[in-house]
Amino acid sequence: MKVKSILAALLLLVAGVQTAMAQKMIVTLNDNSKVTYSISQVKEVAFVEAEEHEWVDLGLPSGTLWATCNVGANSPEEYGDYFAWGEIEPKDNYSWSTYKYCKGSNDTMTKYCAQSDYGYNGFTDGKKELDPEDDAAAVNWGSNWRMPSFSQIIELYNSSYTTTTWTTQNGINGRKITSNSNGNSIFLPAAGYRNDTSLDHAGSRSHYWSRSLGTDGISSAYFLFFNSAYISWNDFDRSYGRSVRPVRVLTR
Known about the structure:
- The chain has helices at about 5-15, 135-140, 150-155; strands at about 25-30, 35-40, 55, 65, 145, 160-170, 170-180, 185-190, 195, 200, 205-215, 220-225, 230-235, 245-250.
- It is mostly beta strands.
- The strands form 5 sheets. The protein has a 4-stranded antiparallel sheet. It has a 3-stranded antiparallel sheet with strand order 6-7-8, with no helix packed on it. A 3-stranded antiparallel sheet has the order 11-12-13, with helices on one face.
């Protein structure tokens, strides 16, 4: 919590005792040092949430800041949770029969559908990117975060901006992506993916969702794909459970 936020609470306590403009506030910090303020110095007070998640600046042209770990993970090496595209909670079974935005099959879509033949009772909405309320990063980490767009995924492994290598970090296989401009890096564990009730290819490949609908505009969505041989993108079945690595929402 910022010092100004601490002052706000203390100011409320003393406001009824003496004239506020005559007050001085002495704040004792954790190291026992003291900071003195005159109340007349305080122009505005704001309460802010402590940031719980770290990010890295890879010097990308877009300015995108990438998180250091997956949603559901506490370290870069942990796999974290798996999400069907557009769903915000992990589950036990990843299939069309359990998918949130259809009626049991890939031709009965109820959201994010561009073709009436695949929409439930002819439904279409033309949406091409996830709404924030369907974004696993935004919902689980807060409004400062989103799942990356397709273009942000493409930028991440563009050899003009980064170098990507298959490696092992703390005993976990994955890809290290290092900035060509500033040397900063992130590690993406090879977390595999979930299909039905099974976890497939953990330790040898991984799929990381974007927030962008796939080329068919119906049943697939874009994701980052990699294994030990190469890294690229793909678009496939959005009912599968895949990893989410958030990006920081830019405020500039």
